[in-house]
Specification:
The complex is a heterodimer of chains A (155) and B (444).
Chain A lengths: L7 H12 L5 E5 L4 E10 L2 E9 L22 E5 L4 E4 L15 E2 L4 E7 L2 E6 L4 E6 L5 E3 L4 E7 L1
Chain B lengths: L3 E4 L3 H13 L3 E7 L6 H5 L2 E6 L10 H10 L4 E3 L9 H9 L3 E2 L4 H8 L1 H10 L7 E4 L2 H11 L3 E5 L9 E3 L2 H19 L4 E5 L4 E11 L3 E13 L2 E7 L6 H17 L3 E11 L5 E7 L6 H8 L3 H9 L16 E8 L1 E2 L5 E2 L2 E2 L2 E6 L3 E5 L6 E2 L6 E9 L2 H14 L1 E3 L5 H9 L1 H5 L6 H6 L1
Parallel strand pairs in B: 1-2, 1-4, 2-3, 4-5
Antiparallel strand pairs in B: 6-9, 7-8, 7-9, 10-11, 10-13, 11-12, 12-15, 13-14, 15-22, 16-17, 18-21, 19-23, 20-22
Helix pairs in contact in B: 4-5, 5-6, 7-8, 12-13
The chains are: A mainly beta (155), B alpha+beta (444).
């Protein structure tokens, strides 16, 4: 029934066997996983061992759909980009008015949105002074780190 | 007998539960969100059921969705892990109503411990000392209460947990402003604005006792010290609690067993205490009615598989061993490796792990769902793995931890590994002489 390839105890045993041998490295590859156990030089004359698992089926493209791309802008415009990857919110709470809208004037420190990453709410600051000209990411959209959220016409 | 176990969680704890379930011959069914379909637990489970979109409120926290998925999967039991719905009485009731065993204590125990004020009351009934303080229905009551107990005080959410919703207040002037924020936060996080006031104990140690109960009898599996915390979030945990006189250790272990029996508690639980670093006077804080993140340090020194015990007790078996049957060997330390950047104010660092070389060897255990190429989604908490070391003495365990941390290499996301390398070199940590102020002065 077990699909788990090796228990932690088995890995510890493999290391004990390797440690007593002349080998520095073990590399096992099957359809389901690849395990590399290798000697790591940690300090002066000492060494430790590491285990490196790779489950090939893990595929980045399926993990999350992200929107908004980093874009090149003219000198008169600046981009407000996401400080972190995460969920982008334009308002402090559902149903509240948006922090800013097209046509609003912002300064460097104006909060224009929130990025929720790992249960933490991170404010997004405009970072430049000007007028909001375009909004590139929808409320509630998943965005990549550094993705453009809004465009500001500098003043 | 549990044949089909539904796991309503994710990450390392889901993988941990799958391991034991499969070893016991159960079919492990993982309830996963859309963001976790290619996670290691999803690949290792015997079956995967989709419970909803990525955000936890639509998946891991959605009672109806989880119960519906467990029913559709013909599960006969649900293991909730920690966090998410693990201590949610409505979830446990819904499972029971669907004819599915909830792997956790009775709803009555969840209710008694889910409300901090109720927990205080039950603790007092069981004869446990509690920190001076109490309910504060409004600002005036809070002020009166705070003046009774003396500043600084700690404001806590009645329905809080996991260190969230706690605020330290140093003077009457700041109290009124802090109360508003505390109540708003409590409402937003737990749907319950009620708060209470407790005296803030500056030089306390956070010591907890692992217990098991079968509804009649109860035993303890020793102490854990979790004093190294940042903003009430644990970073390092060890078992047994170091530098504690035998009589003080026995006293809190006995108190934990007394509370467990008083509740007719069935399952695994943790009774948390604040212990005065000098006098070893102790105060009951709360009981966590679930498996804890730091359970592996107890498993290391006792040799007991706590997930297996949870499953056996949920099936209705009485405790399989007595207090005298247990013996504790050596010392274990766990460090939490989080995808956070300690050099940038612990900013979350989700993304793709290019290479994950975890330490390996005798006396080293790694509980992690993140291998090379693994994804840390931005939706959930930042724990990517736990490194647990076990050795004969604390001194040897600290050495082993230092060497293991030196061999650990995570590339692609920022982690707290470097922070732990610094903690392990700290003289007061090496002496086992830390209290809850440690992190504040360490990082200052």
């Amino acid at each position: 029934m077990s699909k788990l390839p090796l228990t932690p105890e088995s890995v510890a045993e493999i290391v004990s066997i390797l440690d007593g041998s002349g080998y520095d490295r073990l590399d096992i590859k099957t359809d389901a996983f690849r395990l590399r156990v290798q000697r790591e030089h940690v300090a002066d004359s000492k060494s430790g061992w590491s285990q490196d698992w790779d489950f090939s089926a893990q595929d980045a493209s399926k993990s999350a759909e992200t929107t908004a791309l980093v874009e090149q802008l003219a000198d008169s415009l600046c981009a407000i980009s996401a400080p972190l990857p995460g969920m982008f919110y334009r308002a402090p709470q559902p149903g509240s008015p948006a922090f800013v809208d097209i046509g609003d004037t912002v300064t460097q420190d104006t909060v224009v949105g929130i990025i929720e990453t790992m249960k933490l709410m991170n404010p997004v600051h405009a970072g430049c002074a000007g007028v909001i000209e375009g909004i590139c990411a929808e409320n509630g959209a998943m965005v990549d780190g550094a993705a453009t959220l809004m465009r500001v016409r500098k003043i | 007998m549990i044949k089909r176990l539904f796991i309503a969680n994710r990450g390392e704890i889901a993988l941990r539960i799958i391991r034991t379930a499969q070893r016991l011959g159960m079919t492990a069914i993982l309830g996963a969100s859309e963001a976790d379909l290619s996670s290691t637990p999803a690949l290792m489970a015997d079956e995967v059921a989709i419970i909803g979109p990525a955000p936890s409120s639509l998946s891991y926290l959605n009672v109806d969705a989880v119960i519906a998925a467990a029913r559709a999967a013909r599960a006969d039991a649900i293991h909730p892990g920690y966090g998410f719905l693990s201590e949610n009485a409505a979830f446990a009731s819904a499972a029971a109503a669907a004819g599915i065993i909830f792997v956790g204590p009775d709803v009555s125990s969840l209710k008694a411990m889910g409300d901090k004020l109720m927990a205080r009351k039950v603790g007092i009934e069981a004869g446990l000392p509690v920190v001076p303080g109490g309910e504060a229905a409004d600002k005036d009551a809070a002020l009166v209460r705070a003046q009774e107990t003396g500043f600084p005080v700690l404001l806590k959410a009645v329905s809080g947990g996991g260190g969230k919703g706690m605020r330290r207040v140093d003077s009457p002037e700041t109290l009124l402003a802090e109360i508003d924020t505390a109540m708003a936060e409590a409402q937003a996080s737990f749907g319950d604005p009620r708060i209470y006031v407790e005296r803030f104990i500056a030089s306390g140690r956070h010591v907890e006792v692992q217990v098991l109960g079968d509804g009649k009898d109860a035993i303890h599996l020793g102490t854990r010290d979790c004093s190294i915390q940042r903003r009430f979030q644990k970073l390092v945990e060890e078992a047994p609690a170091p530098a504690m006189p035998d009589d003080a250790r026995s006293a809190i272990q006995d108190a934990a067993v007394r509370l467990t029996k008083h509740l007719n508690y069935r399952g695994a639980g943790t009774v948390e205490f604040l212990v005065d670093s000098e006098t070893f006077d102790f105060y009951f804080l709360e009981m966590n009615a679930r498996i804890q993140v730091e359970h592996p340090v107890t498993e290391a020194i006792t040799g007991v598989d706590l997930i297996e015990q949870q499953l056996l007790l949920a099936e209705g078996y009485p405790l399989g061993f007595r207090q005298d049957d247990l013996s504790m060997t050596g010392h274990a330390i766990e460090v939490r490796i989080n995808a956070e950047d300690p050099d940038a104010n612990f900013r979350p660092s989700p993304g793709k792990v290019i290479r994950a070389a975890w330490p390996a060897g005798p006396g080293i255990r790694v509980d992690s769902h993140i291998g090379s190429g693994g994804i840390v989604p931005p939706f959930y908490d930042s724990l990517i793995g736990k490194l647990i070391v076990h050795a004969e003495t604390r001194e040897d365990a600290v050495k082993k931890l230092a060497d293991a941390l030196a061999a650990l290499k995570i590339e692609g996301v920022a982690t707290t590994a470097g922070l732990h390398r610094r903690i392990v070199q700290d003289p007061s940590f090496r002496r086992g002489d830390v209290d809850t102020r440690f992190f504040g002065s360490f990082s200052a």
